[in-house]
Amino acid sequence: MHDSVPVLTPREAASGLLGSISLTCWIFLLVPQLIENYRNGNAEAISLLFLFVWFVGDITNLIGGAWAGLVPVIVAIAVYFCIADGVLIGQCLYYKVRNSRAAAAAAARHRRRRSSLDTPDPTTPLLGRRFSDAIENSRGSARRADSHGQTAGAGADDTLAKIVEENDVGRKAWVKNLSSVLAICVIGMAGWTMAWRTGVWKPAPEEVDGGVDMAPGAMVLGYISAVCYLGARLPQIYKNYCDKSCEGLSLLFFILSLLGNLTYGAGIICHSTERNYIVTNVPWLIGSLGTMVEDITIFMQFRLYATRDATAAV
Q1: How far, in Å, CA of 56 to CA of 225, rounded?
Q2: Closest by alpha carbon to 210, among 259, 158, 280?
Q3: Phi and psi of 44, rounded to 5°?
Q4: How crowded is residue 159: how many other Cβ atoms within 10 Å of its Cβ?
Q5: What span, in angstroms and rounded, lies between the C-alpha atoms of 135 and 124?
Q6: Which one of 5, 126, 143, 149 is separated from 263 by 20 to 30 angstroms, measured CA to CA?
Q7: Which domain holds residue 288?
Q8: What is each CA distance from 155 to 13, 150, 152, 161, 313, in whole angstroms?
Q9: Residue 35 in domain
Q10: What pLDDT is stored for residue 19 in this prediction?
């Protein structure tokens, strides 16, 4: 007696592989932005409204999934999403409070320093102070005049070196992002293969193709979640537009979001194209495939503002 491996149709295998890749993307999704915030020591680039609306979407997704009686694995993943969202929001709030306090302390020190400089010392003659200031200014002008020829000659070389360095960093970033995406795909496919071979993952029952009997309240929460996911990126797109910059945002964060949404929606469609099944999964299809347009918009902003910054540097 031996355990037989379930027989899979090509569509079911594709659905399982795509779903596993999507799950791997969601597990690692927030890590690049957490690292980017840590390296910068701030989270000014990311919109808190974007994170809060996304968090509401994950909360409604969790409640709707539990209400609909989805499998425990899906509910557990929804819990993980909520925890990960909380960690990123907590990090952003921490840096916001810490940096605002540091800025306030620096402003207070600056005001005290200016107050001390503006108060004249009664033992120092005004004429003497003005005379010494004039001498110091003349010395500074002479130093600038002597070094002008050197800095002017080195300016072109410095600009060229900076452009080469920025291009090198850009190439390294693309290699890093591409390597990360390939690693995510390999991990997802390997995980699904192991789950299938060991019997942990099994094809969905045929009757699911005709749709599932889902509570109306769970369906409503699913649509609310989809609306939140669709609207969450709009504040981030607007913030990028106002700042004319995407500096501080992790490109890999949005790449994984796009890949996760694409494979999730494709996995649902690969499983079945029966009308009732598609209608049942409309909220999740909207939440996944609909946000891809906004992710692509953010990619365009990355490209546009990176080109503008490079032009300004030259």
Answers
A1: 7
A2: 280
A3: -70, -25
A4: 12
A5: 17
A6: 5
A7: 10-105+169-313
A8: 59, 9, 5, 10, 12
A9: yes
A10: 86
Choose between 308 and 17: higher pLDDT: 17
Residue 238 is assigned to a structural domain of this protein: yes
Structure tokens at 134: 């004039």
Residue 174 covered by a domain? yes
Tokens 């003005």, located at residue? 130
Report whether 251 contacts 295 (CB < 8 A): no
CA distances from 8 to 23, 99, 201, 206, 265 (A): 20, 55, 11, 12, 20
Whether the full predicted model's pTM is greater than 0.90, yes or no, is no
Element (DSSP H or E) covering residue 175: helix 126-197
Q: Is residue 136 part of a domain?
A: no
Q: Nearest 5°: phi and psi at 4?
A: -90, 140
Instruction: Look at the chain and report how many structural domains it folds into.
Output: 1
Evaluate whether 220 touches 276 at the Cβ level (below 8 Å): no
The C-alpha atoms of residue 225 and residue 231 are separated, in whole angstroms, by: 10
